[in-house]
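Researcher: Re-running this chain for the archive, since the previous output was lost when a drive failed. Same request as before.
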Amino acid sequence: MEQFIVSARKYRPQTFSDVVGQEVITATLLNAINNNHLAQALLFTGPRGVGKTTCARILARKINQEGYDDPYEDFSFNVFELDAASNNGVDDIRSIIDQVRIPPQKGKYKVYIIDEVHMLSSSAFNAFLKTLEEPPKHAIFILATTEKHKILPTILSRCQIFDFKRITVKDAKEYLIKIATDQGVSFEDDALHIIAQKADGAMRDALSIFDRVVSYCGDHLTRQAVSENLNVLDFDYYLKVTDLILANNIPELLLAYNDILNKGFDGHHFIAGLATHFRNLLVCKTPNTIELLEAGEQAKSSFLEQAQKAPESFYIEAIQLANECDYKYKTSQNQRLSVELCLMQLASILYNGEKKK
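Model: Regenerated structure tokens:
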């Protein structure tokens, strides 16, 4: 049986043009290489799974390819990677410092990639300072970290800093569409949107989630199946709850919330999602703000339809009530009752014995 390769490895970008959502950084690095303006100490910082280590490897290969005919030559013997999470002592850094002095046998540069650099001990940082400030002309250091604030200011001052941003839901979904098409997996637009949202800005997480739901759903991803597998509340629940709120149907509203709890969903997660749902309906009220709505095609049409059922003032007050409940949820002695009270208050916004005009 052929060994399965996870998508995060199989589709790891090999060129800067393949990197998702970091166009400014990749363009800057390419220009720096082309104009011979590349700093010898670089710091790549940003959330997990956004392409820091990948860009470091691409950069290491790119700067050594000049003058070589083979585009597939990876110059791996010129690239040294250190995981500072498990190799964070002075001896590990001294080993690098000893290697740095020796020029490369082939290619132009030796590149040292230090991942999770914030994990280095203070003594290791101090041992590294002088080499980082005055490296040999054939050496380039690329430091990568998710926690820039833990790095000594003396290290930061010696590096050219690149801040990687979170991958947008739109960019993540577009990349997932390419991968699903490549693998022959059919999908509903909303299904990939849920995966992209669940990844929370990390492309590696999006690919891991994609592999997981494909294992569950097979070669066709539906919104319902993906929601079940990832244990996320489908937007249909929020549409139903909002319709009951607008109809002032408190008995059915309490039963709907009970059904959500019985399905294993957390009340805190529900009320936070309800506040977001009201926000989404509010941005649908004005054509200028519709672009702020991050949703799949089917969800978008449903939101636009429901948004017309109540005035803006209702959604603003609803957001405030839901947000207040979200804020007080953890300190509440009776969490279920606090959510139920919030739902009853929401259902009473437009009603006071009879529907308000």
